[in-house]
Specification:
It is built from six helices and 18 strands. By secondary structure, the protein is an alpha/beta fold. Strands 1, 2, 3, 4, 5, 6, 9 and 18 form an eight-stranded mixed beta sheet that branches. A six-stranded mixed beta sheet has the order 10-11-12-13-16-17, covered by helices on one side. The N terminus is likely disordered.
């Protein structure tokens, strides 16, 4: 199985494979990496492979990338492919997998806008019963013109979100959801931390040039300043002749340690990394180094 197992304790006696019972405050979580195309059927098949790998490793949740349902070569095709969650074969298929395996799945998808002129870039939480329990719409859209690099205008076909969704309780911890380009703005993650988030997600499809320059640095910065686990599932490889993603899915600890990192090369099948998330360690870090905001000097976020 093309998966990677990391154990943050450095003590083999505490790895999941050698324990019959996982302590309440330690959960096994999986971050998946794939290369989505314009075919929802193909992409669902890829995600189901990741589900199987996560289940086999004993994961209690699976985190998948931004736009896992499809990545199209043009804005018009992106809009033409979108379907509501009630009829999308991709979403219905993942809901069925979540229910079958009792595995919560966090996945980035597209959803339609009422006027049909754009789509929403959203992140949904499918619980272990196969129901969509939470939904976040991407706040910051990727509009860039990099010299010698990509020219991308996400806002041409995507409607921007208008709210930070409060973090929510799950069996693996309190989760706050953000997406890709949101990573460059610390304010939303600080808001989620203030509201009690223990895990913050950044499913992404970074370009190779921006990924090499900033991906790891930004993820570690968000982890350190929020003292939270950061889970960033990433798209990887060439989706079409116009679009390639950086990969390097990553899980970072509240101390800024990179607990898991997948590669940047597209493989024959999607890959998953498995990590133990220790919420007791998180609380210890927060109590030993309290980040007390000077809200008497600057505004609370």
């Amino acid at each position: 199985m093309n998966s990677i197992k990391y154990n943050q304790y450095g003590d083999c006696s505490k790895t999941i494979s050698n324990c019959n019972v996982v302590p309440f405050n330690v959960t096994v979580q999986a971050v998946g990496q794939l290369c989505s195309t314009a075919s929802l059927t193909h992409n669902l098949t890829q995600c189901r492979v990741l589900v199987q790998k996560a289940v086999a490793a004993g994961a209690k949740a699976l985190f998948l990338p931004e736009a896992s349902d499809y990545i199209a070569p043009s804005t018009s095709e992106t809009i033409s492919l979108v379907q509501p969650t009630s009829s999308s074969p991709f979403v219905l298929g993942l809901k069925a997998s979540a229910k079958e395996h009792r595995l919560p799945i966090n996945v980035g998808i597209h959803e339609p806008v009422r006027d049909g002129k754009k789509v929403k870039n959203t992140l949904i939480w499918i619980d272990e019963c196969g129901e969509i329990k939470e939904r976040y719409q991407k706040l910051h859209l990727f509009d860039v013109d990099i010299s010698g690099g990509p020219v991308l205008k996400e806002s041409n076909g995507v409607e921007k979100g208008m709210e930070i969704v409060p973090p929510f309780e799950t069996a693996v911890g309190t989760v706050g959801m953000l997406i890709c380009f949101d990573l460059r703005f610390p304010e939303p993650s600080l808001s989620l931390r203030r509201q009690g988030a223990q895990i913050i997600t950044y499913p992404s499809a970074f370009t190779p040039s921006t990924g090499v320059a900033h991906w790891s640095s930004l993820l570690r910065a968000r982890a350190i300043e929020t003292q939270s686990y950061i889970i960033a599932a990433a798209q990887v490889g060439a989706h079409n002749e116009k679009r390639t993603s950086y990969g390097h899915s990553m899980i970072v600890s509240p101390w800024g340690d990179v607990l898991a990192e997948l590669g940047g090369a597209k493989r024959d099948e999607p890959v998953v990394a498995i990590v133990d998330i220790d919420l007791e360690r998180l609380e210890r870090i927060r109590s030993e180094m309290p980040l007390l905001r000077r809200t008497d000097v600057y505004p609370e976020i």
